[in-house]
Amino acid sequence: MDRIFRAFIDVLHSNADLPQLKTSMTEIAAALDLGAFAYLFAGSQPDAEVKLISNYSTAWTSHYLANGYEDVDPVIERSVGTREPFEWGYGYWFRQLGSRQIQLLEEAAGFGIRCGFTIPIHDSLSRIAAVTFATGDCHAKFARCVERQGPLLQFVAMLFHSRARLSLAPERSVSGIILSPREYECLKWASNGKSAWDIGCILNISPRTVSFHLDNAKSKLGVRTISQAVALLAASVRFTA
Fold first, then answer.
1. 3-state SS assignment for residue 176
2. Would you list the DSSP string of 20-55?
């Protein structure tokens, strides 16, 4: 597992393309015996296209997106409404589902997706973002793994989102200035109240390197403080939304 996790980190911090990102996440899921995974993302704009990185059946993902199931998917609905990871499946729903939602779950089961564990991700640059680990067999082993590895899965999900989002929505303009991927990432996390030490842990770089990227971002944006740079980022996000 250590080797696979190190390889995962190496891929995320390289110029990996989407197939490489998919392969790295597939290996993580397999190493933890969690079956399939899916990362669903839509940018902060109301009309932003929903995008998917997954090792689910291509027939299922094409069917899912073609039918606009992200608009009725109870997993996504709950992801938008909560920040806490959750398990899901036929035995986990706490309210009555609509007919189209039931149809979605029944069709997903036909493709071997019957239950799972979803980590919602909320930030100012995403309308929808969530990582799901799913299985076709809701056995006790899956539940035990989720319970035991929950914190690691959340960490993996955040790291994956941080890198994958840049590939799916690479726009890094703040007040008309294009920042580098690292400058934008560091500024984004700073806008969420993270310190240089926190950001370094999230991105697997040193606090000194974080400060270097933040200083570059300030210089490009013509401001003197991180607070001013964050304000420009927030204004840019509101404008594009």
1. coil
2. HHHHHHHHHHHHTT--EEEEEEEESSTTPPPEEEE-
The burial of 203, by beta-carbon neighbours within 10 Å (0-12 exposed, 13-18 middle, 19 or more buried), is given as buried
| Cα–Cα nearest to 102, from 63, 137, 73 | 73
Identify the pLDDT of residue 120: 97
Closest listed residue to residue 12, CA positions, set 167, 196, 216? 167
Q: Sketch out the chain's domains with CATH numbers.
A: 2-168 (3.30.450.80), 173-240 (1.10.10.10)
Q: Would residue 154 be called left, alpha or beta, if left means φ above 0 and alpha means ψ between -120 and 50 degrees?
A: alpha
Query: For 68-126, what is each residue's pLDDT tens digit?
Result: 999 999 999 999 999 999 999 876 765 678 889 989 999 999 999 999 999 999 987 78
Tell me, what's the pLDDT at 239? 37
List, in sequence order, the alpha helices (H) in 178-225.
181-191, 196-203, 207-221
pLDDT less than 50: residues of the chain: 238-241
